[in-house]
C-alpha cells in the first residue's frame, strides 16, 4: 500500500515517473478505464475549487466514482490527537473514522490545512499523518499543513510544457502580499518538486518569512541528486534576474503564532511592494512564464496586468491538476 502525502513518498524518481505518465496520457489518453470499480473517498477539512473538481473528474472520467465528505458539514467533526479527552465539538476520532471509511472506498484523499500552531506543528503534519496511520487504504494528499504535492506536480508539468525541460531551468519562487497569513504548503511543494525536477530555484521573501529548515534541507538533497540548485534572497529583483518563470505565492511569517492578528496584518501590509506587476515581470527574462496555484486575490497578491497577460499560465497550471492526479493515482495503485 502506497500513501502519497509528501514529495518524499515519490522522491525524484517517482516525480519523473508520474510527470512522464501525465504528459503521455495528456497527449493520448489511456486505452482502458483506469479506475473502473474504484471509489475515491475525499475528506475536506477546508474549502477547494480545483482539487475537488479535478480529483472527482479523474475518477468519473476514469470509470470510477468519488464520495466527497466535508468535515463539520454533514459529517462529524474529527479528532486526530491520540489520548484526547473529547469533551468539545469533535465527536469522532480518526482511529475509528479512517478505518471505517477504508471499508467503503479504495483510496482516501485528504485536505487539511495548517491548524495555525506554527511551523514546527506543520512540520509534523499531524492530521494527514493520523490518516496515514489509521487508514487501511492508500492516502493521497489534497493539501496538508506541510505540503500540497499534487500542486507541485502540476506546476512541474506546466513548466515542462512551456520550456520542454526543467533541468537547470531558472525559476523564481517569490513571496507575495496578502491580507492574512497563508500556509506554507504550496511554497514548500513548489520548492520540493522543482528541486526534484532539477530546476535552478531562487526563493525570494522578506526577512522573517523563511521556509522551515527541514524543507530547505530536503530541497537541497533533491537538488544535489538532480543537478538543480536552490538559493535564497530577501531581494526580489536579484532573484528575478535571468528567471524564465516566476511563481508567486503568499505565506505567513515564520513565527506567525507569536504575532497578534493586528501585528500580522501590519507586517503583511508593509510588504505590499512585493506584489508582482508588469514591472516586476520585466526584471525576469523577456516573456517569463507566470504561475500561481490559485485562488489568487487580484491586485493584493498579484496585479491584474500579470494575471491577464499572455505569459500567465495559471489556468493551464490548474488544468494540469487533472493530468498529474490521474497519473499519480494510477502510480499509487500499481505499487
Ligand atoms: N490550495 C491552494 C491554496 C490554498 C490556500 N489558500 C487560501 O487559503 C486562500 C484564502 C484566501 O485568499 O482567503 C493556501 O494558501 O494554502
Ligand atoms: N490550487 C488548489 O489546490 O486550489 P483549490 O484550493 O481550489 O483546490
Automatic annotation (TrEMBL):
It comes from the Bacteria. InterPro entries: ArgF'-like, Asp/Orn_carbamoyltranf_P-bd, Asp/Orn_carbamoylTrfase, Asp/Orn_carbamoylTrfase_sf, Asp_carbamoyltransf_Asp/Orn-bd. N(2)-succinyl-L-ornithine binds at residues 143, 178, 249, 297. It catalyses: N(2)-succinyl-L-ornithine + carbamoyl phosphate = N(2)-succinyl-L-citrulline + phosphate + H(+). Coiled coil: none annotated. GO terms for molecular function: amino acid binding; ornithine carbamoyltransferase activity. Carbamoyl phosphate binds at residues 48-51, 76, 111, 148-151, 293-294, 321. Transmembrane segments: none annotated. Residues 186-332 form the Aspartate/ornithine carbamoyltransferase Asp/Orn-binding domain. The keyword Transcription does not apply. Pfam families: OTCace, OTCace_N. Its EC number is 2.1.3.11. The keyword Amino-acid biosynthesis applies. One of its GO terms (biological process) is citrulline biosynthetic process. Pathway: Amino-acid biosynthesis; L-arginine biosynthesis. Keywords: Amino-acid biosynthesis, Arginine biosynthesis, Transferase. Residues 2-161 form the Aspartate/ornithine carbamoyltransferase carbamoyl-P binding domain. Homotrimer. Belongs to the aspartate/ornithine carbamoyltransferase superfamily. SOTCase family. Catalyzes the transfer of the carbamoyl group from carbamoyl phosphate to the delta-amino group of N(2)-succinyl-L-ornithine to produce N(2)-succinyl-L-citrulline. Is essential for arginine biosynthesis. This is N-succinylornithine carbamoyltransferase. It comes from Myxococcus xanthus (strain DK1622).
Amino acid at each position: 500500500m502506497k500513501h502519497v502525502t509528501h514529495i518524499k513518498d515519490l522522491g525524484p524518481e517517482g516525480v519523473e515517473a508520474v510527470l512522464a505518465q501525465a504528459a503521455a496520457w495528456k497527449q493520448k489518453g489511456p486505452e482502458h478505464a483506469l479506475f473502473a470499480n474504484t471509489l475515491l473517498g475525499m475528506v475536506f477539512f477546508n474549502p477547494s475549487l480545483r482539487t475537488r473538481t479535478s480529483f472527482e473528474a479523474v475518477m468519473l472520467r476514469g470509470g470510477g466514482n468519488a464520495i466527497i465528505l466535508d468535515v463539520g458539514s454533514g459529517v462529524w467533526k474529527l479528532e486526530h490527537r491520540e489520548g484526547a479527552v473529547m469533551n468539545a465539538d469533535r465527536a469522532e476520532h480518526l482511529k475509528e473514522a479512517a478505518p471505517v471509511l477504508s471499508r467503503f472506498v479504495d483510496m482516501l484523499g485528504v485536505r487539511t490545512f495548517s491548524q495555525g500552531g506554527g511551523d514546527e506543528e506543520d512540520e509534523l503534519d499531524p492530521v494527514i499523518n493520523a490518516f496515514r496511520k489509521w487508514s487501511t487504504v492508500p492516502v493521497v494528499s489534497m493539501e496538508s499543513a506541510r505540503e500540497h504535492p499534487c500542486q507541485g506536480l502540476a506546476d512541474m508539468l506546466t513548466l515542462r510544457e512551456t520550456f520542454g525541460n526543467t533541468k537547470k531551468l531558472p525559476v523564481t519562487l517569490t513571496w507575495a502580499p496578502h491580507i492574512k497569513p497563508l500556509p506554507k504548503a504550496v511554497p514548500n511543494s513548489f520548492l520540493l518538486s522543482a528541486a526534484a525536477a532539477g530546476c535552478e530555484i531562487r526563493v525570494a521573501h522578506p526577512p522573517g518569512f523563511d521556509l522551515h529548515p527541514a524543507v530547505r534541507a530536503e530541497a537541497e538533497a533533491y537538488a544535489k541528486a538532480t543537478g538543480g540548485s536552490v538559493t535564497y534572497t530577501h531581494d526580489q529583483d536579484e532573484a528575478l534576474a535571468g528567471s524564465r518563470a516566476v511563481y508567486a505565492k503568499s505565506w505567513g511569517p515564520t513565527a506567525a503564532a507569536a504575532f497578534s492578528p493586528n501585528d500580522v496584518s501590519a507586517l503583511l501590509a508593509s510588504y505590499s511592494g512585493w506584489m508582482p506587476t508588469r514591472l516586476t515581470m520585466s526584471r525576469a527574462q523577456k516573456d517569463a512564464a507566470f504561475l500561481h496555484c490559485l485562488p489568487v486575490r487580484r491586485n493584493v497578491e498579484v496585479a491584474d496586468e500579470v494575471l491577464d497577460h499572455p505569459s500567465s499560465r495559471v489556468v493551464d497550471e490548474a488544468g494540469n491538476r487533472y493530468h498529474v492526479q490521474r497519473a499519480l493515482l494510477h502510480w499509487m495503485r500499481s505499487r
